[in-house]
Design a protein that fits this description.
Distance between the termini: 64 Å
CATH class of the largest domain: Mainly Beta
Radius of gyration: 32 Å
Structural class: mainly beta
Shape: rod-shaped
């Protein structure tokens, strides 16, 4: 019996020391005092980040040329491109306001496309700048829309083409709508998954050419409206 009483006394003395968390201490009256120091970092609302993007372009090239250029005529041909895959990316910075809204400035590169045949090589790349607005839902989903400027750069290399005008630098209005999902990795890092449907007007490019006899000709490519479907993955750092 004495051994049981002694064991009970020892357990009674040891249990408070083992069971009590490190941030709890005992006062002189036998009560607990909370000494845990927790500091909640207040965020400023500002953030920066970057995205890697896979896009799919849709557009049409309409060709025309002077009547004497190797049998071509003004209604010569056109090429339609559908869901051509390209890789791009962007950097961005923004701020949160009114709890659920975000405003963001994004600068990016939609990608680089190349098409080549026996007579010509066509390339197109599109840098852009957009101002975006987002609404964040409490479940991590968000909706957004943006407007900005695309700067398509097209290059056409053709037989007998004058090299001085082979590259055209264009400026086109651009707009898009977005659907995405944000997931907090820690207090500052946020994983950002986004789908964007964007569109921009095309550009026209006219090239001066010379045949084997040195006679001048011209060739023109008119690019219709460009539609871009893209999915991206990014990281935001929130201050």
């Amino acid at each position: 019996m004495k051994r049981l009483v002694s064991l009970a006394v020892l357990l009674g003395l040891a249990m408070p020391a083992v069971a009590a968390p490190s941030y709890l201490t005992r006062d002189n009256n036998g009560g607990y005092v909370v000494t845990y120091d927790y500091t909640d970092k207040a965020k400023t609302g500002w953030y920066v980040g970057a995205r890697a993007e896979l896009g799919f372009w849709n557009w049409e090239n309409k060709y025309s040329a002077d009547d004497d250029l190797t049998g071509l005529d003004n209604n010569y041909n056109s090429d339609k491109y559908s869901f051509e895959p390209v890789f791009g990316g962007s950097i961005f910075g923004g701020t949160r306001f009114a709890y659920f809204w975000r405003a963001e400035l994004e600068a990016g590169y939609l990608g680089y496309f190349k098409d080549k045949d026996a007579a010509a090589e066509f390339t197109m790349q599109i840098p852009y700048v957009m101002l975006n607005g987002y609404y964040d839902f409490t479940n991590g989903l968000y909706l957004g829309a943006g407007v900005g400027v695309a700067m398509p750069i097209t290059t056409i290399d053709m037989i007998w083409a004058d090299g001085s005008d082979r590259t055209e630098y264009g400026v086109a209005p651009m707009a898009g709508v977005m659907l995405g999902y944000s997931y907090e990795l820690d207090d500052n890092l946020v994983l950002d998954l986004r789908y964007r449907l964007a569109g921009m007007t095309g550009v026209d490019q006219k090239i001066d050419m010379f045949d084997t006899d040195g006679a001048p000709h011209w060739f023109q490519n008119d690019i219709d409206f460009i539609l871009d479907n893209s999915v991206s993955i990014g990281i935001r750092y929130e201050f």
